[in-house]
Amino acid sequence: MKKLLITGGSGYLGWHCCLNEQHGWKVIATHHHNKDGVHPSADAYKLDLTDKDALWKALKTVKPDAVFHLAAHSGTGFCENNPEESHQLNVAATTHLAEMAADLKAKLFFTSSEQVFDGTQGQYTETDEPNPKNEYGKQKLEAENIIQSVYPEACILRIAVLFGLPTTVSKSFLNQWTESWEKMIPITAFHDEIRPFLSAKNCTDGLFHLLHQGAQGLFHLGGKTFSSRYDFALMAKNILNFPDAIIYSKSQKEVETPAYRPPDLSLNCQKIAGTGFELKMPQDELKKLKPFFRSGDKAMLN
Fold it and tell me: What whole-number distance in Å separates Cα of residue 247 and Cα of residue 227?
């Protein structure tokens, strides 16, 4: 049986990847502080990715055939306020992992972000010139460039903002919205911030699709369509059946944030679609989630 090592296995995307079991693959998921965040279908492996010696020991012990490098400090505000700490994980650890994976000939898949763009254009393709304006985007781009240099056969997937089921330790923005709606607390969403909202399930399907194809190079992955955060909130309200939910529309310009928020990060995903991967409509993915949000059936998390 082949082995897949997932870094950030207790994180939001890592948990969903473990949930998406693949025949013929044994999954080992790393965690640092949150062992309970690792889905029970995977073997948990405690690891500080910023410890180079520990990282090398882990790779030599596990001997993975492939690595999903998902671990990151992904909060834009955190990265902006803590650039040195976030750089240690987002760039330095990624550099070491890429070098080691190349030495061991373990196929590497790295999740980057649409934040590598400034958001002034939209419909970005893989050949468009990145121009990150916040620290998180700058670190992701730096990591991309290093990976392409030290391990050209690696696969880099720039993903859009994720939504889906909550995990045992983390939530998406959608979960935060529905929790507010259940308590009749209004939410605010930007009408001038465009995103290609991507379900966590569709994202994990994309990663495994590229794994099975032995893909390399750079790909974009987002939902099949894009919308403003405000329009997505309205769509979620209707599909998930929160008729009394209150949603206030606001402009990005009205809110001061620690990190630059790109206005339009819609992605052109025709390259991955050309490999035979099916892009999903966000509204269809929301419909699949409706039974959970309306029933509170925690069994769906197992």
Answer: 15
Angle at 8 between CA 223 and CA 127, to 5 degrees: 40
- What Rg, from alpha-carbon coordinates, does the chain have? 19
Question: Could you identify the residue written with the tokens 């520990």?
Answer: 54
Q: Does 84 share its domain with 231? A: no
Q: What angle do CA 252, 165, 75 make, to 5 degrees?
A: 40
What domain range includes position 190? 164-195+226-264+281-301
**Whose CA is closest to 114, among 149, 144, 71?**
144
CA distances, 103 to each of 63, 64, 195, 214 (Å): 12, 12, 37, 17
Residue 273 lies in a domain: no
pLDDT digit string (tens) for 131-146?
999 999 999 999 999 9
Which pair of structure tokens corresponds to residue 146? Answer: 């290093």
Question: 117: closest CA among 127, 105, 103, 106?
Answer: 127
Q: What angle do CA 230, 203, 124 make, to 5 degrees?
A: 65
**Are residue 131 and residue 15 in the same domain, yes or no?**
yes
Q: How many Cα atoms are found within 13 Å in the side-chain-facing hemisphere of 154?
A: 31
Residues 46 and 182 in one domain: no
pLDDT in tens, 178-192: 999 999 999 999 999
